[in-house]
């Protein structure tokens, strides 16, 4: 919204990221914990071997509807996605980056913004 309101940002690129760096495994584990999935159940995240990951991505491409994963998505995950520090960040827009743990539970948690949506879907038999 800040960029839309400020014409000086036209043509600018901003690195919009928080103050922490995570691996994909850490993000999956945290998402499960914040969503209440991993609490007390001892669920672990197991990485697929590369050939199985490619096979899974290929099968998901062939499934009807919008693919949840593709071989291109899988290839993109091989490249780190972190701020370079060479471009303006959120601070340049007057935004203080927040830690993931400070905000993710509010929209992934069982009492968060999505909880009402999930309950509605379950009641409607869509889940």
Q: What features would you describe in this structure?
A:
The chain has 127 residues and is mainly alpha-helical. Helix content is 43%, strand content 0%. It has helices at 2-5, 24-34, 50-62, 71-76, 100-108, 113-123. The two termini are 33 Å apart.
**Number of E-state strands:** 0
Morphology: extended
Instruction: Report the C-alpha radius of gyration, rounded.
Output: 18 Å
Overall mean pLDDT: 84
- The SSE order reads HHHHHH
Strand content: under 5%
Poorly predicted parts: none
Annotation field: number of helices: 6
CA-CA gap between termini = 33 Å
Which structural class best describes the helix and strand composition?
mainly alpha
Short account of what is shown:
This protein starts with a helix and ends with a helix.
For the structure shown, list the relevant keywords.
mainly alpha; 127 residues
